Each structure stands twice: as structure tokens, then as C-alpha cells.
Amino acid sequence: MQCVLLGAVTELRATTHTIEFPYTRTLGPVIGSFFTGLRDRRILGIRAGDRVLVPPLEYDPETGDALKPDFVEVGPAGTVTSWSWVTKPTRKHPLDRPFGFALIRLDGADTAMVHAVDAGSIDRMQTGMRVTPRWRDERKGRIDDIECFVPEGGAA
Amino acid sequence: MAALKDVAIIGYAQARNERQAQATEVQFLFPVINEALEMSKIPRREIGFTCAGSCDYLSGQTFAFVMNLEAVGAWPPISESHVEMDGAWALYEAWVRLQHEDIDTALVFGSGKSSPGNPAEIYPLQMDPYTLTPLGFDPVSSAAIQARALLDAGKVTERQMAEIAARSRRDAMKNPYAQVTGEFDVDELLAQPYVTAPLRKHDLPPISDGACAVVLATGDKAREVCERPAWIRGIDHRIEAHQPGMRDLTTSRSTRLAGEAAGVGSAPIEVAELSATFTHQEPILREALGLGDQVAINPSGGALSANPVMAVGLARIAEAAKQIVEGGRRRTLGHATSGMCLQQNLVCVLEGEQ
Amino acid sequence: MTDTAGNATTTSGDEPVTMMEYFMQLEYSDVVSAPVMRFRDALMDARLIAQQCPKCKLVYVPPKGYCPIDTVELDERNEIQLADRGVVTNYTVVTPVQYYGQKETEPFVRASILLDPPGGMLILQDVLDIPVAEVRAGMRVEAVWAPKGERDVDEIGNRSGSALEGSLRGFRPTGEPDMPAEAFSDKVW
Ligand SMILES: [Zn+2]
Hints:
Shape of chain A: globular
Distance between the termini of chain A: 40 Å
Helix content of chain A: under 10%
Order of helices and strands of chain A: EEHEEEEEEEE
Low-confidence stretches of chain A: 1-5
Radius of gyration of chain B: 19 Å
Strand order of the largest sheet of chain B: 3-2-4-7-1-8-12-11-9-10
Low-confidence stretches of chain B: none
CATH architecture of the domain at 7-118 and 207-228 in chain B: 3-Layer(aba) Sandwich
Distance between the termini of chain B: 27 Å
CATH superfamily of the domain at 7-118 and 207-228 in chain B: Thiolase/Chalcone synthase
Radius of gyration of chain A: 20 Å
Helix content of chain B: 25-40%
Strand order of the largest sheet of chain A: 8-7-6-9-10
Structural class of chain A: mainly beta
Number of strands of chain B: 12
Oligomer: heterotrimer
Largest interface: A-B, 41 and 41 residues
Shape of chain B: globular
Mean pLDDT of chain B: 96
Bound molecules: zinc ion
Strand content of chain B: 15-25%
């Protein structure tokens, strides 16, 4: 902890502190399969009736019914269905330079997943754009095994 | 279902919202709870049930919610509960508790001191821990995606969003608790750069430290102490899927369902206080609740003029009650939301007697 | 093996992925409240101050601006000066478990100390100059202040009222005869 002077006029002082929790989570059969796929550079969706959900869930969000572990490979490319442009990334964001957070409907999926798009400039972002994943070399079985998506046909 | 017991709002108070309060959360809760109790004319020790809404992650202190009870007067021990949600959900729990008929009064409060932490880093922790939290997917980024979907669908324009901000800040000039107030020119607002496109600073809520308290009473008790109680005629809350890509972000199905269950459409609403913490969420909520142009929206300035997280929804209900108790209105509505992109929504319909 | 954020890593393999690590870290900067600011200023002068409720006479140290029993707000007018000696009313010996973030390695004492009149309880205090095994309830103690010039209250915020080491190092035995421990059995906080 340390103290910082917030301003001579008000003479407010603040103490700083950091809280840290190292979490270890079990993944279960659905997210576990999804993450195993990512480690192996494959993106898996789950069948819910005639739809394919990505990321896969244990249940159908429309009905609440449990889903059978019936996985189907989707993507890896997809279409941006909506997006934002982050000008000042936080230290928790996937990229340290301006990037787009986007909803991406992967080819073969009926729902969109959230991920970052490294487009270089907001001018390259648009709804309907095609994107493809940039995989990390060393993958751990996590959502950020995909470092980000990049515009199809050439990175920024 | 058995007939529901009549429950009314008979007292309310709010803290003046600040960007950074020097007072601790308990300290600024103190006068708010005292003021709400005084207004209700119910002696503190006669309150049958107390329910609070707050979030320990905001203050970064475990059991901060227990500390908050120090502002209530909890010794000798009282009957109380807590929700890690906006105080509007604490009000819902208190309303349910009052249906048991063994008590006739309840105190509800919500409080939050957002200034110590960084909302962009705290809120990703309430997301899906597998696929969203590790990406640091923050509320402004998710709201921006929702705004983009709305703009793409032609359901709102950036100018309309700026107009909502300007109207809210203008209305807030009459609200002593508001934080961001004043006359703003829409063209000048639109000339500002994006914070997270397509959202500009005026599309975002301020970061606020604040609190709200409400006192409830059942039928005869409410009539006994209050000249014009604000009767809760309907209250309901609904939730949608947590993955934003599995919902139509341009509509709010959960708000529509909650509104229907609360009986919004059964008679005209005069004033609606909506927890639209981003400008573009106001038209989504209006559409979901079927609120036409004749309905006054957020005369308090709403969440865009002060956003005391964990109290902002309860403050909407308090403002809607104030329109009946002090403003003589017949029928008003308070709305609260939780989660990202209006994931969960609560609707409370209030009525005054003719 | 772990990466820079402390996350355990797994190399690609044929085993299904069943677990996920996530290192949660949040930083806060909390403005020091007015009563705690005054408490800090007093510590710099090697003084302990508190607020006393005019109704129930309870003494709050550090001061917090209100009495939760009577729900009255307190301020400078309710401030009192405390003694810097008193009696150990209760204590525990903590044998540190080496969980993440633990800095202690040896058993240590955390004592509740009732200060001499006008009173006031300090909790979680270190007891110095005596083996851990010899600390006892009823033991008379006095404050060990950091030398003027070395005192530091920068770490004392609204939530760290008992962590005073930068100015008040702890308490040490005075050598006076013990007081009857059972007289203080209800004085822990
Ligand atoms: Zn007292």
C-alpha cells in the first residue's frame, strides 16, 4: 500500500491496495471440450435443436433444457455482427493497442461469440466484415488461445 | 395465487452523488437512512425487516455489506438480509417478505462507492468466467456493441443518443442529488471524439458514489402514517442469457416480460424512471415497455446524470414514488437493470389513490 | 510452470483440458475519511485518539464518524485522547499457513488491548519483547512508538485501522503485576 496526495486544495489523501485471488476452475464436459478444441486449433459449437451455439453452453438458453454433448466444428473464420472500437485498452484487455471488441458469428454457428479484432484502425472495422483467428503458438486450453481475430485476407 | 398484500412506499431519501466521496460508504449511508426513516414516521426499532443491496467488489473489502449495517442500527439484532445486487432487488425481497403478513414495515437500501476501483477492470469479473472475463470484456465495450447493433438496425441515431444525454443533463439541473447537470448543445456533444466507438463520453454514465433508502409499509399502516402512499401495483424481474451473442441486443425481452407481469400496459403511465445507464438503452427500454411520447422519461435526469451502482435502480423507484407522493401523479414506473447490455431487468409499477 | 501473470501453463498434448486458472487482480485507491485523517495526524505525534458516543459512552478507536449502536453521527466534538498503555484482554498465536500472499513465516501474536481510562480497545496488536508462549490475558502493556522522524502513517486508510506498525510498533510488557484476566473476558473487540 502507499499514499498519494490527491490535490493540495482539498488535501484528500488516498491509500492504495491490491486484492488478488488465484482461481482454479473446473471446466466440466462442455467448456472442457471447447477449450480442448482451442488448444488443438479447433473451434467447437454444441447442437441445440437445429441450431449450433458458440461458445457452447451446457443448456439451451431458449428453453433451459440440458444439451447433449453433441459437438460440431465451426469456423475458424466468421462474420462480425456488431462491434465497438476500444481506443484506450486496459491492462486486462487482450491487446495493448486500439482494437475492436466484436460479436463474431463463426461459419456454421447460429450465435455470435465475443472476441477482439486486431484491425489496426477503426476504418477497417465494419459490420459484416470477415475475420479469422490468430492462434497463439503456445496454447493452454483457454479462450485466449485465440490471441484475437484479424480481417480475412490480411492482418492489420 | 392468493391475493397480494398491498405494499406502499412511504419514505425515501438519496445521497448527493459524488465522483469521489471522502466519506466512507457507511458515513454517507447514515443521513440517507435517517432521512428515509424520518419521512416514513416509522420508529427505527419498529421496522420489521431490513434488506440491503451492495457489492463488496466495488469497495474492494470483504464483508463491506456487513459494515453497511452499522448505518441501520442493528443492535440489538434486527431481522435483515442482503443481495449482491442493486437495491431495487432488495426492495423486491422486502416486498415478498411483507407478503407473509407477520410484519408491516420494511427498510430497503442500496449503496455503492465506485470511486476506489476501476469499473473497467471490476465488471469483467461478473461475466462468464471462461469466455468473457479472461478477455477483460468491460461494460463500456459491451454497451458499445449494443449501440452499434441498434445503429445498424436503424432504431436510433447518434444524434438521438446525444439528445437523450442533453435532455437528461438539463432535467438533472432540478435534481439536488445529480452529479452531471447543465445545458449542453447537441452539435457540440456530437463533435466530441468517441470513447469507445460508437459511444462518446455523454453516452456513458458518470462514476458515482451514492446511496438510496426506501421505507415500505403494508395497507393500513401505510395509510396511517402517509398522506399519499405510492402503492406498488406490480413488480417483476426477468433475466436473459449471459452470452451477449445469444440475444437480440436491439430489444429487451426480459424488460418486456417483466413489464407485462407488472401490469405496465393496463393503464397509462405518466412518468417512467428508467435505469438506462447508456443513452442508447433508453429507446430499447421505451419500446420494451410500450412507453409512448406522452410519458415523461427520467425527469430526475436518470442514470446518465448520476450512476451510484447498486443504488441507481432503487433511486429510479424512489424517484417514481416521489412523483406520486410529492408530485400528485397517478401512475408511474421505476426500472432497474443488472448485468451487461440490459441482461436482467426489474419493473415496478406505482400508483397513487385518486 | 507458470507464466508472468502466475497462471499455470500446460503444453499441448492429448489430455483433455479439464481445469482453467485465472489470476484475479484488482487495484483500489480509497480516499482517507476525515476521522481517520485526524487519527493519522495524532499517531504522528505518538498520540491515540478516539471518538466517544455521548449516549452509550462507547469509545471508537480508530474514530469512524458514528456510533452504530445509537445511530448517531460523531465528529471532532466527540473526540477524546486515549492512554497508550493498558491490559491484554485476549490474544491468539497465529502459526502462519503459507497460502498465496502470506508474508509471515514464524508464529506471531495478535492481542486485544483495553487501554487505561478513558478506555478504548485496540485489536490485532503485536506484543513485543516477550516470547510468544509467555503472552497472557491480564498482562499489563505499554505502547512502543516508532521514533519521531521514522513514523509513517501513509498505509493507514479507512479499512486498516488496526495495522498501525508504521507509527505504533506494538505493545510491550510494563512489568507491573497482572490484572485478573476474567475481569476482561467480555472485552475482545
Ligand atoms: Zn452510542
